Amino acid sequence: MALRDVLLSVAQTPHRLRRRALVTWTPAQELNEVRDRSGARMARRLEWYDLVGLGVGGMLGAGVFVTTGRVARDTAGPAVFASYVVAGVSALLSSFCYAEFAVRVPVAGGAFSYLRVTFGEFVGFFGGANILMEYVLSNAAVARSFTDYLASTCGVTEPNAWRVEVEAIAKGYNALDFPAVALILLLTACLCYSTKESSTLNMVLTAFHLLFFAFIIVAGFWNGSARNMVTPDGLAPYGVRGVLDGAAVVYFSYIGYDSASTMAEEIRDPARALPVGIAGSVLIVSALYCLMSVALCVMLPYTDIAESAPFSSAFRDKAGWRWASSVVGAGASIGIVASLLVAMLGQARYLCVIARARLVPAWLAKVHPSTGTPMNATIFLGLCTASIALFTELQIVFEMISIGTLLAFYLVANALIYHRYAKVGATRPLHVLLFLLLLTLSSVGFSLARRIDGKWRWGMALFGATSVVVVAIFHCTARQGVAGPPSEWTVPMMPWPAAASVFLNVFLMTTLKVRSFQRFGIWSLVITIFYVCYGVHSTYTAEENEIVNAMIHDGNADILS
């Protein structure tokens, strides 16, 4: 591109932003015109049970084996199971929103596609890029946890025994984890080969993993004591605040379910399979999370839970159950492999669809004609994940995750309300946007009031009641303008489930640490700069070229006729 063209593009940036930032696509365009930009199409070879298996496998390894021990010891105490309940309710409500959108727009883009057809290009890119970063960070954390559990399986108790420490590198980044890198690269190669075979591998791993879960739950309750649930400081030593803070951290465990929505292009019957696969997997996993967390806490007091590989350590430290440590380590390793497999499957499809929209280089959208997989996106993100897993310690990654997931789920819940009432229905868009603004502000007010002790307790009641009243008024005034429900599955009792999802996601975001918001601010700035400097120009130029090509095609057709 000549320098003159670059300067012209820079000068036209405000005009191009006005033209592109809020442009939306219809579901039909996403399903046909946009999808065709990948060349070959993804093969429809998955059934509903594949989706349930992918959802369950994607969540199980990440949640219990990576976050439970840390949250139980440092944040919620034995009441960590209550943290999983709160996070599970929020995830279930969000899964309903995802399921309806996935049925309406069965493409691989997940939250990116849902937001783009509702709020426009920039909001879609902003939400999609945030959840993509969350995937990469969480996958790196899960891969490093795999090294801990694999070492525990072999009887090694030193956390960094299988890592190479380099003194010349800053602390926190100097424990090089080559087993984690090897696992990521191996799974990347598997995912490039075939989605159906990857799903079959996940089903096998998940089946073995569930057997290990059953063993851990039964053995934990058999070998534990209910006294440990209240020793030494009671069931909830950190109070309700600790339970809620813990819920925000363990919410990271539910990232896997939205991977199922990204498989929409590869399912034979999306309208039936997607609601069952997405919501069903969240319910199954939530129940298992609660049982596993209780099993851990009955085995030993929360103050004695190990930071690294807590389940293996719990069995190892119990007299007569040392052999179980290796069994648990092997089971956890299998579960983590399944979880990582599904998450890497989902992140590649997010990037593929973002590339179809021309917001990142188009070569990332290409689907390999023989394997039917987005090979370029899979390899690129595999290398990014491996790089972070090689250098970055778990604690640093933990402090930066969850906010992107919560933000994406918050935006999708808002998008569902707007789509249902303003786009499909007859309610004025300004009415719907005002409702969403008031709901968000009252949710923020409630959440901030909770963080202030003493006299601000009344603020929780005030803002909580305001949220309920706002939803009730909107429900009464807007529902008459909503079009009749489509033949596909839809979220029942709207707008209450989506509004509750908005409230809970805002609430959980306010419990995160400052580092999470710092990472979010930096990454959001990078996203915005990238969109202004590359994305908007790429999509604008592509649109102009399509218009010119269409005019040439029409002119040639007139001449021939």
TrEMBL record:
Gene3D superfamilies: Amino acid/polyamine transporter I (1.20.1740.10). GO terms for molecular function: amino acid transmembrane transporter activity. It is found in: Membrane. The chain crosses the membrane at residues 48-67, 79-101, 113-133, 175-194, 201-223, 235-257, 278-303, 323-346, 396-418, 430-449, 461-483, 489-508, 520-537. GO terms for biological process: amino acid transport. The keyword Chaperone does not apply. Belongs to the amino acid-polyamine-organocation (APC) superfamily. Cationic amino acid transporter (CAT) (TC 2.A.3.3) family. This is Cationic amino acid transporter C-terminal domain-containing protein. The gene is LOC123427398.
